[in-house]
Amino acid sequence: MLPSSKAEALAFVRSVTITADGFGAGFRRADPYEGDPTRWSVLGRDCLWRREPLPPQVRAGLTREFVKPGAGGKEAARVKVTVTVHESVTAADRDMAVSLETSMRCPEQWLSTTERIRRLWSRGDSHGGMRAAISDDDLNETGEYTSGDGVWNGFSWYKYRLGPITLSVTARSGGGETEAEEAETITGVASGIGLVGADIDRRGTQLDDKGAGDE
Fold it and tell me: Which whole number is the average pLDDT over 28-42?
């Protein structure tokens, strides 16, 4: 059954298997590897992302980061994976709706005082034939990322809902990659997302309205 307490939910998100090589050859754990499980990312009215305490409708969330070091003058590629347990399917649905709205509200966003993403294009596919087989709802977003040095590289964001659980993944391509190398990174990230989603499904939770204790 779905974790019914914050402690059980935190144990659940920690139990989800996420391996570095699942995203492709060369990836390894970043340092730091895990984020603060008592906080999550919120996009402010000023289009700046901040880490804020978890709201009451979120039982637990955990972010892990992976990096593929650059070589030969190339920048590192990075992947962040966040698994979040909401109190119900309805709460998770609301979170998906807010996520879809962010790129329309803020086509250019600040990740920090120097890091930015821009030219964001989003697609939601809750019922269509392109929906991922592992999810009940999914969103995809693409754009460009800069660390503040004036060079813009590829940025991708994926978010899936499996019952009351959301899986969010962001990927930043390494600067200096060829088109083929960037495509390989994107393909690897997509494969890694499938592995994580399948593991969430295997773990078990009965991701349906009844098991989720939906409103």
Answer: 94
Q: Extract the tokens encoding 67.
A: 């990096």
Which residue is listed with tokens 């895990």? 34
Confidence of residue 80 (pLDDT cuts 50, 70, 90): very high
Does position 186 have pLDDT exceeding 70, yes or no? yes
> Is the link from the previous residue into 32 a cis peptide, with omega within 30 of 0?
yes
Strands 77-86, 58-68: pairing kind:
antiparallel
Average pLDDT, the chain: 85
Cis peptide before 56 (omega within 30 of 0): no
> How many Cα neighbours within 13 Å face the side chain of 37?
19
CB of 37 within 8 A of CB of 62?
A: yes
What pLDDT sits at residue 213? 38
User: Which tens digit of pLDDT belongs to each residue from 95-117?
Assistant: 999 988 887 889 899 999 999 99
Angle at 117 between CA 76 and CA 48, to 5 degrees: 115
Q: What is the dihedral of CA 138, 168, 107, 186, to 10 degrees?
A: -90
The distance of Cα 96 from the centroid of its chain, to the nearest Å, equals 12
DSSP-based three-state secondary structure for 56: coil
Give the three-class secondary structure for 21. helix
